Amino acid sequence: MELFKQRIEELKKEIKRHNKAYYEEDTPTISDYEYDELYRELKKLEELYPEYITSDSPTQTVGSKGGTKLKEIKHRYRLYSLDNSNNIKDLKQWYDRMKREYPEGKVEIVSELKIDGLACALTYKNGELQIGATRGDGITGEVITENIKEIKNIPQKIKSRIDIEVRGEVYMPLEAFEKLNESQRKKGGKEFANPRNAASGSLRQDDAKITGERELKFFAYAAIFPNGDSPKTHFEILQMLKEEGFTVNENAKKHDSIESVERYCKYWETERNKLNYATDGIVVKVNDIYKQNELGYTSRAPKWATAYKFPPEETESELIDIEIGVGKTGAITPVGILKPVKLAGTIVKRASLHNFEEIERLHINIGDKVIIKKAAEIIPKVIRKSNQKIDNGVYERPKYCPSCKTKLVKPEGEVILYCPNSKSCPAQIKERIEFWCSKEGMDIDGMGESIVQEAVEKGIIKDIADIYTLKEEDLMQIGLIKEKSAQNLMKSIEKSKSRPLKNFITSLSIKLVGKETAELIANEFSTLERIKEATIEELKDIDGIGEKVGRSIVEYFRDEENKKILRKLKEYGVNPQSAANAIISNKFKNMTFVITGTLTEPRSKFEAKIKSMGGKISSTVSKKTTYVLCGENPGSKFDKAVSLGVIIIDEKKFTEMVEDDEQTRQNNRNQRN
To answer: Does a structural domain hold residue 578?
Structure first.
């Protein structure tokens, strides 16, 4: 049982990480298919072991809140996600469940193409557009009204003078996507990974005029009628939306059998490549609105709908070269240069080869025909040779760094080759500075790849600390920067001085330390000074950090060159902010709390306090529960706790426990002083 609990926790963390990358950062880290497989595994385990279901599980929530600075809005009507059917068998099982609910009558189905864009809700009052908002986590979204008004096929006034909330997908046509990336290439900007990322990034611009220039479009696919005057079927709603001036996908179709739905899905698996927009599946819904309301929802998705996801695409290309890259930590990565080929709606010219052991496993070389598939719809990966009988030999791994010519090393137990010349390798220096400036790092808006490259080449910046010595006249030496841009960049640099501690640790490019590990460290130690003093043993005590990672962190902060840069950063006013949700105590370590009933303060405050003291929150009472914190009118969780013999505490007792711990920590501080 403990093994299954551990796997559930691992899956929750991994899925949340991918959710954040997809919804907040517009940089998906795995393919939809791979994500769905993780989600299905978690859902299955939670069905088998419901005592391990928590309210924050991805199976109980929708998407993620946005990571932008846009104003948030609470949706009047929740925007749910969709459960997925990854094959026809799953789709038939879903349909069979619908039939069992209505054994005497016909269950009519509507199928629509699932557009790969950004879900939005548009609120109309008396026929006029009032609010445009992103889906966000389904409960809270981001206000994008002015940006929405820049999308030409969204009506600002509809024909009927009614109140209505229209749901739909904002997307970027493939032609517009190629045009945008061509423009980005010409001005040295960063290219978008795929049309979905481009649409999301374009819709979240601070300047609505930029949104208007990006040629976005909108498909309406649902509507809510606050006054209860909804048409009787989903298909009728689509027709009504069309009459009101919205663009509705013309490929929506009604079906009276699952065989008809299956034919529709199979048809679009290949025909979708002829469309001028990206689609990653088919949405299948019960047509009758009354039946939809009867069937209802789970905590995250309607029971009356499912999404049939297309299998991941594969295609053949020729490996015409292998490019050797040097990362910010010195990692040497091979990237395949391909004969251009269309895959999942975009032209791809590069593919991941992961590492040289993978090249040897695949037994590939320049000139081979290879099969590629999309991974996270960012950069495709080579998965095998097309013809195993043709032997061109194996590409030979390099011996020296392509940037500084230092002899490469391969640490024991690792598959990655490294350039050990971290102090003076030009490629590593550039990559570290670029990463420091990135959104994932210290988020210095305007300090993109091309600007960093020119600044390093001209000697304007030699390390990350040099960024904070820059003046407007220094920036004006860079070809792409004009006076106004230089002023804005100086403001962005100043703002970055007070980023959260987790961003600062991530940005240091410590070997084996990504953003998740950085957040764990920041939450555990709270301040940079405390992290610098941490021992390997203290770091290993953090769940998720092992010997190698702990050693890497300690070695980084002991290195004299790194110490010098950290001193300079402090001198220049870089002051990372302590984690708001840092673990300040181990009082509740390895304890699980369930909260029920009405308390004197919002439940979130009690949850935050428990987490800050090392505890965990669960939504269900089980034998594993340590305490049930009860307010007034606690309900069934109280009864379950009594039957299982779980300790029940009230708010007064909880406060006493917290205050006792705070007093103990204060006494310890006094003794040290």
So the answer is: no
On whether the CB atoms of residues 195 and 174 are closer than 8 A, the answer is: yes
Domain membership of residue 66 (yes or no) is no
Higher pLDDT, 339 or 61: 339
Q: How far apart are CA 478 and CA 318, in angstroms?
A: 38
For residue 620, what are the domain limits? 592-672
407 pairs with which residues across the strands? 400
- SS3 (DSSP) at 590: coil
Query: Quick check: 494 and 567 in contact, CB under 8 A?
Result: no
The two most distant CA atoms of the chain are separated, in Å, by 78
H or E segment to which residue 231 belongs: none
Q: Cβ contacts of residue 258 below 8 Å, gap of 6+? A: 91, 92, 95, 109
Which residues face 598 on adjacent strands? Answer: 632
Residue 484 lies in a domain: yes
Residue 114 is a catalytic residue? yes
188 and 275 belong to one structural domain: yes
Burial class of residue 484 (count of CB atoms within 10 Å of its CB; 0-12, 13-18, 19+): exposed
345 band by pLDDT with thresholds 50, 70 and 90: low
Tokens 């990672």 correspond to what residue?
Answer: 549
The total of structural domains in the chain comes to 5
Query: For residue 576, is it within any domain?
Result: no
Residues 37, 84: Cα–Cα separation, whole Å: 10
CB contact burial 368-386 (16+ within 10 A = b; e otherwise): bebbbbbbbbbbbbbeebe
CA distance 203 to 214: 9
E strand or H helix that includes residue 364 = none
How many CB atoms sit inside 10 A of residue 554's CB?
A: 18
Q: Name the percent of the chain lying above pLDDT 90.
A: 49
pLDDT tens string 60-89: 655 554 444 578 899 999 999 898 887 899
Of 432, 404, 412, the C-alpha closest to 324 is: 404
Q: Average pLDDT, stretch 207-229?
A: 92
What does the alpha-carbon distance between residue 496 and residue 556 come to, in Å, rounded to a whole number? Answer: 22
What six digits make up the tokens of 640? 């379950």
Same domain? 430 vs 414: no
Q: Which of 12, 20, 114, 609 is catalytic?
A: 114
Indicate the residue type of 186. K
* Angle between helix 174-186 and 195-203 (nearest 10): 70
337 shares a domain with 262: no
Token pair of 69 as six digits:
């600075």
Question: What distance in Å separates the CA atoms of residue 115 and residue 282, rounded to the nearest whole number?
Answer: 9
In the block, tokens 């006013």 appear at 573
pTM, 2 dp: 0.54
Q: Which residues contact 285 (CB under 8 A, 6 or more apart)?
A: 109, 110, 111, 112, 234, 292, 302, 304, 305
pLDDT in tens, 594-636: 998 888 887 777 887 888 888 888 878 888 899 999 988 787 7
131 plus 255 within the same structural domain: yes
Whether residue 642 sits in one domain with residue 510: no
* The Cα angle at residue 522 between residues 517 and 524, in degrees rounded to 5: 95
Task: Flag whether pLDDT at 176 surpasses 70.
Answer: yes
